[in-house]
Amino acid sequence: MIEFEKFTLDNGLRVIVHQDRSTPIVAFNLLYDVGAKDEDEERTGFAHLFEHLMFGGSVNIVNFDRPLQEAGGLNNAFTSNDITNYYASLPVKNLETAFWLDSDRMLSLAFSEKSLEVQRSVVIEEFKQRYLNQPYGDVWLLLRPLAYKKHPYKWATIGKDVSHIQNASMEEVKHFFNKHYGPQNAVLCIAGDVGVDQVKELSEKYFGSIPKRGKYTRDLQSEPQQSKYRELTVEREVPANAIYKAYHMCDRMHPDFYAVDLISDLLSNGKSSRLYNSLVKDQGLFAEIGAYVLGSHENGLFVATGKISHGVDVRKADAALETELQRVVEIKVAENELQKVKNKLESTKLFNEMSALNKAMNLCFFELLGDANMVNEEMEKYRNVNPEQIRRVANELLRKDNCSTLFYLAK
Amino acid sequence: MNIDRSIPPVTTAISSVRVPLPENSFLTNGIPVYSFDLADQELVKIEVVFRSGLALQSRNLVADFTANMMPEGTINRSGVEIANTVDFYGSFLEHSITKDFTSFTLYCLTKYADESLDIFADILCNPTFPGKEFETHKRNGLQRFKVNLDKVSVLCKREFGKKLYMSDHPYYSDVDEADFKLSKDQLLTHFSERLNFSDAVIFVSGFVKKKLIKSLDRVFGKIELKKLVKPEILRVDSSLAQKSLIRKEDALQSGIRIGRLIPIQRSSVDYVPFAVLNTVLGGYFSSRLMSNIREDKGYTYGIGSGLISNLASTIFLISTEVNAEYTGDTIREIKSEINRLQNEKISDMELQRVKNYMVGAFLKKSDGPFNVCDQFKSCLLHGLDLSYNENYLHEIQEVNPENVRDLAGKFLNFKDLIQVVAGKL
User: What ipTM does the predicted assembly reach?
Assistant: First the structure.
């Protein structure tokens, strides 16, 4: 059980406090309700570029990182298709420094030309380092538009093209800030050896005076149901052929989410999982294999992927993978196998709860999805999934008509 | 409320960190156990460390394959049975190998500690290295190896490793495809000669009560310990300066590694001052290298420097992947940042900020039972005085601007450094 208290400031900022007396370090996690899905299709990669700019100085503070380092703190951030998350950890005595820094950049960024110019280059280098200069790096730049034709999940967080980042202007940056970075669009969580009153006081002092910005009403194009199997083949300079299969699934809060997640665990979590044992160990068709869910807020993807063993025919490998996926549909899973994956999930959750920062992030994520307390309700939902539900959900999910396959072949 | 946002809040410097010491006990056969009972959650981490690593393998890849293959089958259980049982209890098995040590770790819930320990001990004592699984591992390992050779960072790292040591030193490593032709006998020999309990230490942390120590004795305490001769590894204090370019014409980015061996061990009075110098140069986000090459010039997504302490060597290295068009420029900027450190004394303000950062980072690394144990383990295995961690913060504060400048002058001369580029120059 993660105990916490919650309150909301007049300007709409939601604040959550979790007391953890075991650590001298406090976690400060600030989550903004904006991700790549909120971008203009002609200006993708913006949410992520913006995350970089948030470290380039704010209206009263020239350099974000240095005062935090002075205070003995560490910080970072990440962006996804759904959210942008900023976090810091620092000695609990210096908590006020984190409040000062993050409230100032919520108030207003410095919007310097130099910062925009440099971060454009840095993000372009990141694009290259992670997506273009790595073997199999551009998979998601290909798989997303294959699976999604209308919904903004069709482009990756890094952006559709380097040119979108290259052409980003200061006007567009300012507009993005005003549209998405308001207090009513954010959830703050403090986790550590702190008291609620202390956090209330600091929140009022630093965030209280930040005005609400214009309300952002999310209105995204919905993805029409896929009615036919899709396939794409590309050739790249890589040493081995690979397959990526994406299936449309429900959203994060849907009652069937837990069953889909457990299906991916049955298939791929741990050394005793099905795909590894059947396709890698027994049949030797794949060198590596995995299945996972994206965990997207909106209707997401279930993905099965593998690197094919040298000398094995690609279609044969694909057929074997499909056969293994169909087993989940055709044969009801045994109680003890299902119990095994649930035990593993529960154990993972317990180990994760040793980290204050991890708890703070989860509280923010679930608050954004509707209720922070869901962090304490998730395990029960997983435990309640029975073999019949697994079969029903697998049957809806793993249909060929619902599948987009990318064959990524060695040149 | 109106506040003056231009004024930073007052901060408190951390002057000391409480560093708990372990309980030290011995199993029936004399294997030492160090335990930290520090968690509220009923979880434990049990780590068995063998004082033998990559440096003592008979040939390339033997140590890795031995460790990877041990959970694939024992006298008592098949690999499938092991995997199923470990997963069923929600336990996790890991291993890691460095030049000097091989360690196997079990994470489990205390309620399943006995069952998990039975399997863990079985894997460490009775592996059989079954043939079919061995072939699969070799095949897949080779495929992964080939994928990795496509990455400039890997090419760079490999080449740098080859330049650091003379080819006859046990730390020298140069893996290629032919090395994947291993035999089962090589694994068995490595297992019996190197993964030797007479040369092992056990570390336990988390929710650790007497019951767990008794369980450890049950599974490990009756092993017959036989002392084996272990070759000594001679310390290497310096490397030969060299330049190397691995061309990759289509590379969008170049990997760069620049560094050397330094004659400073962890026990040396110069170690902490050098660690401070390293942090200033490239050890945190506002370092000289990051501020220049990323935040000013935008050449890279990340650049940093670091120290790696082996028992018989200490490596200093700078590494990055940069826009290939700016490879030469980056090397020039790295050189110029080093020159600055050698010729200009760092300001008191910047030095204090680095110290505060390092203290904060140390605090984070000492947070929680598993981290506390890791910090202690590192000291013990490196033969350091157990007051090392307590003294670390004090030693950081003692470092002055002259120390930083003098160490840079002594050890960071470009002509003494190995320079490796993978990509375009």
Answer: 0.88
